[in-house]
Amino acid sequence: MSDFQFSPDLLPKHIAVIMDGNGRWAKRQGKPRIYGHRKAVKAVRETISTASRLGIKAITLFAFSSENWKRPEEEVSVLMDLFMTVLTREVKKLHKNNLRLQIIGDKTRFSDALQKKIAAAEDLTRDNTGTVINVAANYGGKWDITEAVKKIAAQVAEGQLQPNDVTEECISQQLSMSGLPDVDLMIRTSGECRISNFMLWQMAYAELYFTDLCWPEFNEQALLDSIIWYLNRERRFGCTSEQLQALMKK
């Protein structure tokens, strides 16, 4: 439609990403799995930058699930070291660009040093008003809902809340990312077509986009392609890659 006027209001407000395929991608290169994890950092940077320039309100990246502890001990150890290094290196850039960082998940299993690094990073960016970058680490959707229910049960036990007062909104307020919109678009890389216990409550009405690209291959154009797919799924016809790129230059 030549007379279509694209509005930024049509964009997804919250994008969630399951960053999958690092190990498989590395194996194809004849490299160890950790090589893929290190190369994945570039895809994270590009995705955050693109989302920020588009004015996306929030993006949530699934970095490490609660099930990932079952991986080989050496790989988990390297992932934790990489997490620490990336936090140290990237948080100042996020702060400089007015982005807010939140680490979502059960942080108690991390080392004291990593917990302190997380707290410092969150504190530094707490008052920033740009895109919220949620990194889900030691996170599971069932864990998130269970923790919310525990908090509500405690309020009921203390007489602060009656059972009939428990509503969907009440539960939502106790979940991780409670102050953010629910997920509009979920992206999973590497060709796997499942949500793997990720943000089960928040993705109730999300559009689910699956791509065969492995995460280290994901780039700005790949994110734009997923957003165009989302716009067409929502019957918001006519948006082009050029229109999105123009929006990022404003």
What does this structure look like?
With 250 residues, the chain is α/β, with parallel strands linked by helices. The chain has one domain (9-140, 184-248): Undecaprenyl pyrophosphate synthetase (3-Layer(aba) Sandwich). Helix content is 45%, strand content 14%. It contains 8 helices and 6 strands, in the order βααβαβαβααββαα. It has helices at residues 22-28, 33-54, 73-96, 112-125, 141-157, 168-174, 220-233, 241-248, and strands spanning 14-18, 58-65, 100-104, 132-139, 185-188, 207-210. A 6-stranded parallel β-sheet has the order 3-4-2-1-5-6, sandwiched between helices. The chain is globular, with a radius of gyration of 19 Å. It starts with 13 loop residues before the first strand and ends with a helix.
Question: Which keywords apply here?
Answer:
alpha/beta; 250 residues; 8 helices
Would you summarize the structure shown here?
With 250 residues, the chain is an alpha/beta fold. It has helices at 22-28, 33-54, 73-96, 112-125, 141-157, 168-174, 220-233, 241-248; strands spanning 14-18, 58-65, 100-104, 132-139, 185-188, 207-210.
